[in-house]
Amino acid sequence: SVASVLTDDIVALSGFYADVFELAEVVEFRTEVFRGLDLGGVVLGFSPLETYEALGIEEWANARGTKQYLTFEVSSDGEVESLSARAVEQGARLLHEPYDTAYGSHQSVLADPDGNVFRINHFRPPS
């Protein structure tokens, strides 16, 4: 499975996520128009904006607002804090500082350098 992000700079944006979350590139997928990062069974893919035309979805090329977002699950509240800070250092914008949710998680909400929204989440199972 691949979760794809369209961007005008596949190298820079894939590098942002690789740096923040220490993700390895799936080198065998690398082409001039694709970069992929290993999420452990799922690939986080990055394709250029020309992909809108290639897929026949040009009408969505200038979409505004967030219709979907990625959530990166981590193993502790401290990781939410430290990865949020690392993401901001790498160019992300903090949209919601780390907080405890009504559904038992500790999470932050950020926008990557391209403006794509993502969350860093630590789910705490009910005791």
Helices and strands, in order, run as EHEEHEHEEE
Poorly predicted regions are none
Number of strands: 7
Strand order of the largest sheet: 4-7-6-5
Separation of the first and last Cα atoms: 33 Å
Contiguous helical run count = 3
Describe the fold and architecture.
The chain is of the alpha/beta class and 127 residues long. 23% of the residues lie in helices and 33% in strands. It is built from three helices and seven strands; from the N terminus they run E-H-E-E-H-E-H-E-E-E. It has a four-stranded mixed β-sheet, with helices on one face. Strands 1-3-2 form a three-stranded mixed β-sheet, with helices on one face. Strand 2 (35-38) and strand 3 (43-48) form a beta hairpin. It is globular. The N and C termini lie far apart (33 Å). The model has no long low-confidence stretch (mean pLDDT 96).
Task: Give a brief rundown of this model.
By secondary structure, the chain is an alpha/beta fold. Helices cover 23% and strands 33% of the residues.
What key phrases describe this protein's structure?
127 residues, 3-stranded mixed beta sheet, 7 strands, globular
Describe the SSE topology:
Elements: E1 2-7, H1 10-21, E2 35-38, E3 43-48, H2 51-54, E4 70-73, H3 77-89, E5 93-100, E6 105-111, E7 117-123
Parallel strand pairs: 1-3, 4-7
Antiparallel strand pairs: 2-3, 5-6, 6-7
